[in-house]
Amino acid sequence: MKKSKFNLANDNKKNDETSRIVCLGIETTAHTFGVSIAVEENGQGKILSNVRDSYTTKKGGMIPNQAADHHVDVCDVVLKKSLDEAKIKIDDVDVICFSQGPGIGHTLRIGAFFARCLAHMFGKPLVGVNHCIAHLEIARLVTDATDPVLLYVSGANTQVIAYEGQKYRIFGETLDIGIGNFLDCFARELDLGFPGGPHVYELSLKSKKYIELPYVVKGMDVSFGGLLTNLKQKIHKSAFGKEYTKEDLCFSAQETTFAMLVEVAERALNHCDKRELVLGGGVACNKRLQEMCHKMCKDAGFKFYVPEPQYLIDNAAMIAWLGLLEFKVGNILNVEDSKDSKMLPYWRTDDVIVNWR
Ligand code: AMP
Ligand code: MG
After folding, report:
1. Which ligand ends up closest to the CA of 180?
2. Which CATH superfamily groups domain 12-136+312-351?
3. Which end of the chain is more exposed for a tag (fewer CB within 10 A), N or C?
4. DSSP track, 113-161
């Protein structure tokens, strides 16, 4: 990452008491195309707009090149709507930010290209941010949490993250698929459509019958692959619809996987000697997961925070906000060098030096 001619962060005008920094953020790591405007005014951060359009299907899962086509289709309208809602003109924007990774190559490429074009066209500095870290930083903005453990539960990612020694370190994670992908694959097997998590939740409310399922926690890591295979086998067995129903399986899948997640979150809180737990990622919208985390925190004496749903699912507000924090400390990409702003599909949370905290 090079410093470019745009190091406005060192401009005295921007750092004094009456400063205002306006940041435009773009999110495209997977199914969501989002644009948001975040500002910092006199040291106070605020989200002025957070507009999204997400790719969905009625049947089957997400097809990466169709998701990318979706993002190309909606990018102009989402950009305009976000600027209009924030009552900001593109000329008033100080910096363009985008989620540089991790994520699906097909969709990340659209965001990286779109952001670099805007930066070039309008002569703005460009910041590439890590999507997982953005989930944690937006929680610090919109809740009272200051130094939390993040239980990050999204489509592709499942990580337990906390700040330690200038990095957001991963203390536990999935050894195979993310919890969201697990729910989506399970839902696809039941013909429920994408995204599957909300459908599984709705069906789970109609059952209280627990079917024994594999519970896989290894230290602070979790694994869902074997559990998914086990569920697929159950769906295609003769007992399906007789001894147990899809409602029972949805209930049991949630109870099992969420208990695994709560167990590793609690262990990480104790290990890191932190007092606050926050939830992030689309699966964090799940009311049963929230309830289980709330109970664990209450029993163990931790504080528990859940940002509102618009900041849990993939969103551009968190990209704009982290981009703004990074811009202030000069983490700026060289717009002229296309390699500097290339997408990073496998970018690890703990590869980033946190120089803004
Ligand atoms: P993200 O990648 O963070 O946007 O999260 C997307 C994932 O969240 C998908 O796998 C969805 O199935 C899942 N999801 C969204 N809402 C819910 C919910 N209420 N319960 C469980 N999973 C959900
Ligand atoms: Mg996410």
Report:
1. 1
2. ATPase, nucleotide binding domain (3.30.420.40)
3. C
4. HHHHHHHHHHT--EEEEEHHHHHHHHHHHHSS-SSPEEEEE-SS-EEEE
- For ligand 1, atom 20, which residue shows the shortest CA distance? 286
- Distance from Cα 346 to the centre of ligand 2, integer Å: 14
- How is the chain split into domains, by residue range? 12-136+312-351, 146-306
Residue 196 CB less than 6 A away from ligand 1: yes
DSSP assignment letter at 8: G
Tens digits of pLDDT across the chain (357 residues): 444 445 454 454 445 556 899 999 999 999 999 999 999 999 999 999 999 999 987 776 788 999 999 999 999 999 999 999 999 999 999 999 999 999 999 999 999 999 999 999 999 999 999 999 999 999 999 999 999 999 999 998 999 999 999 999 999 999 999 999 999 999 999 998 878 999 999 999 999 999 999 999 999 999 999 999 999 999 988 788 888 999 999 999 999 999 999 999 999 999 999 999 999 999 999 999 999 999 999 999 999 999 999 999 999 999 999 999 999 999 999 998 888 999 999 999 999 999 999
Rg (CA), the chain: 21
Distance 155 CA to ligand 1 centre (A): 6
25 Cα–ligand 2 center, Å = 14
Residue 186: nearest ligand to its CA? 1
